[in-house]
Amino acid sequence: MAKKSPGSQKREDSLSRERIIDASIALLDEAGESGLTFRALSLKLATGPGAIYWHVANKSELLTAACDAIVARAMNAPLADATPEATLRAIALGMFDAIDAHPWVGSTLAHAPGQLPAVRILERIGQQLRHLGVPREFEWTTVSALLSYILGVGGQNAANAQFAQAEGLNRTDFLASVANTWSELDPAEYPFASSIAKQLPDHDDRADFLTGIDLILKGIGSR
Amino acid sequence: MAKKSPGSQKREDSLSRERIIDASIALLDEAGESGLTFRALSLKLATGPGAIYWHVANKSELLTAACDAIVARAMNAPLADATPEATLRAIALGMFDAIDAHPWVGSTLAHAPGQLPAVRILERIGQQLRHLGVPREFEWTTVSALLSYILGVGGQNAANAQFAQAEGLNRTDFLASVANTWSELDPAEYPFASSIAKQLPDHDDRADFLTGIDLILKGIGSR
DNA sequence: ACATGATTGGAACGCCGTTCCAATATTGTG
DNA sequence: CACAATATTGGAACGGCGTTCCAATCATGT
């Protein structure tokens, strides 16, 4: 019916891997991990589940692709020329902020070991470790420690966000409720946890994350 | 709920939270995370799904309880008297080995932030940090960094195991396939990843994990 | 104008977690 | 000991999920 711009006669509403991934990201951002279903996606794209499967193998691949889009954006951001340490901190913070903005990335990343998104982070960190002069024989353990820490924090942030959402709480109320549980633990059995509970609601995730990175960097420097 | 008293006339095959959790652990160990379903559980316990729900609120609680049983076992193991550093290493290795033996614990732990299983680990680590003389104002960031690292490594090990199982590979073949993918990346774009690929199949997860712990401990010591 | 292959979209399948409820087992009371 | 009250069981049923299948439609080369 409608004739398009000269050359292409493709329908304007045709599906494509890219449109599907964009819609998936939107769905995940709006409703969290459980918000991405093939039915909700079909609805948003005004099509059926079958059509989506022509462009995407399965849900796992779709999640990884959505995750990769976010990670690629974060890892391709230009960085000011600085010392390798400062650059490593910037890379780590970039991932922290990306996961903070899209909590589902944290848990998806944790479920796609060795896949493209994780490799992007590994690559970026590894290059800086070489600039830092880390000996070849320590490269793997070092990059692996940093990556594990970043993924660990990211996974926990994702879990916190999901847990809070499941209970209908915001971050502050959720932390307060956890702190309350901890403070009611038997001080004889849990002296540390019960005493640290009061610090829980006021702490700064981002600052703590960075302190952890610095701890590891300090450890690397003093080898 | 279940009452136990002398002369009790309870049927021998009665359900209990404990029996359900034990059966869940068995199922998870046999078939991985996806092996735990209320139907499989009913079959194993020779009952119906409804009966299980009388003892357990939902699947999430069941998973957390199963996870907690494993973590409690690992964290209550007696430790030789030793320096705080050595004890911290032993605690960390205890969790690593527990997750290695029950990969599903790694991913369950990552999804239950602030819950009992995580608190057990936090408590054990925190006590040693106090023995180590970490100042109060650094306690939270320090324990949090160690916990994040441990959960991060655990989560990745869990994901590796699950991924490998999904593709029907053992750990060695899975690592080899990942290494192969990495080595085929464009060396111009991924110089680090493509060059480190060959070290992937031969590395020792457990030793690398411990090196990461030492890196953090060294960072703590040199504050 | 038509044949061919790419692409669509909706129906259907077999799972899942969860709920519901009638049936049964156990306990407390006269 | 009888019998009401309560605790516990187990299976049917519900809605939603990922995935598969396939007839219908679209785009393209001849």
Question: What distinguishing features does this structure have?
Answer:
mainly alpha, flat, homodimer, 223 residues, Tetracycline Repressor, domain 2, DNA-binding
Description:
Two copies of one chain form a homodimer. By secondary structure, the first copy, chain A, is an all-alpha fold. Chain A has two domains: 14-56, Homeodomain-like (Arc Repressor Mutant, subunit A, Orthogonal Bundle); 69-221, Tetracycline Repressor, domain 2. In chain A, 70% of the residues lie in helices and 0% in strands. Chain A has eleven helices and no strands. Chain A has helices spanning 17-31, 38-45, 49-55, 59-75, 84-101, 103-110, 116-132, 136-166, 171-183, 191-196, 205-221. In chain A, helix 4 crosses helix 5 (84-101) and helix 5 (84-101) packs across helix 6. The longest helix of chain A is centred in the last third of the chain and has 31 residues, at 136-166. The termini of chain A are far apart. The relative contact order of chain A is 0.09. At the A-B interface, helix 7, helix 8, helix 9, helix 10 and helix 11 of A face helix 7, helix 8, helix 9, helix 10 and helix 11 of B. Chain B binds a DNA duplex (30 and 30 nucleotides) through helix 2 and helix 3.
SSE topology:
The structure is a homodimer of 223-residue chains.
Chain A: H1 17-31, H2 38-45, H3 49-55, H4 59-75, H5 84-101, H6 103-110, H7 116-132, H8 136-166, H9 171-183, H10 191-196, H11 205-221
Chain B binds a DNA duplex (30 and 30 nucleotides) through residues 1, 3, 9-11, 14-15, 37-39, 42, 47-55, 58-59.
